[in-house]
Amino acid sequence: MAFPQEIVPELISYLKNLERRGIKSLYLDAATSELNVEPESSRVTPDHPEPEPKDTPVATPAATASVAGLLAELETKVKVCTECGLHEGRTNSVFGTGDPATKVLFIGEGPGRDEDIQGLPFVGRSGQLLTKILAAIDLERKDVYITNMVKCRPPNNRDPQENEVRCCEQYLKVQIDLIKPRIICALGRIAAQWLLDKTTSLGEMRKSEHAYRGIPVLVTYHPAALLRNPGLKKAAWEDFKRLRDILTD
Ligand code: SF4
Questions:
Q1: Which of 53, 112, 133, 198 minimizes the number of CB atoms within 10 Å of its CB?
Q2: Cα-to-centroid distance, 48 and ligand 1 (Å)
Q3: Phi and psi of 112, rounded to 5°?
Q4: Residue 64 has pLDDT above 70, yes or no
Q5: Which pLDDT band, with edges at 50, 70 and 90, does 19 fall under?
Q6: pLDDT higher at 220 or 52
Q7: Which residues line ligand 1 at a C-beta cut-off of 6 Å?
Q8: Residue 78 CA to ligand 1 centre (angstroms)
């Protein structure tokens, strides 16, 4: 059936209006009812039903709200979690923050001192550097989701131990399943090794393409490593440019 060209200007104007209101996707029926256009589904004869779409559905505002609700529910569990020894030293757990409908999920290692105090990920010097790098590839923190492998601070900023990661992975797995990002960016060796189930070095892992349960994974240095060793910044910048290219494809 030919698309009714006379509604195109009105449709474009409607979509631009939604974009200005921050709505990135919508139910077809909602759009068609507001446009006073007969929905495609109502024109399908019962003998020839439309096949179920096979692609992953685009996040709708309603779906995003329910993901946010489920994430909030999970966060309340994390706040009282005592499943590993890290809970003993925490001021606050650090669940993660950002847009539940994001295309890119960043995963670091664990909260540091500032994060433990504020209950938010990547708010210290490393976080400030990450924010600057994101801005350089036209991303704002509110547009991405950032979390860590472990949700409670390891003492003296040591690496999370394997048993702590194994205890805490239950939360990260659900976060990934709910957010369904288009790409995951592993910040540092601990996140990369867990996501890829490998023990190879970060330097090796960042040279190849990977996936976690079908989701592409880009491996790069943790911002704290860039602060300790500014010589790594050039390589990290190449990784982030690759991320930008993937997201704008
Ligand atoms: S690090 Fe994870 S598993 Fe350990 S106490 Fe905190 S929330 Fe629970």
A1: 53
A2: 52
A3: -100, -165
A4: yes
A5: low
A6: 220
A7: 78, 81-84, 86-87, 93, 150-152, 164, 167-168
A8: 7
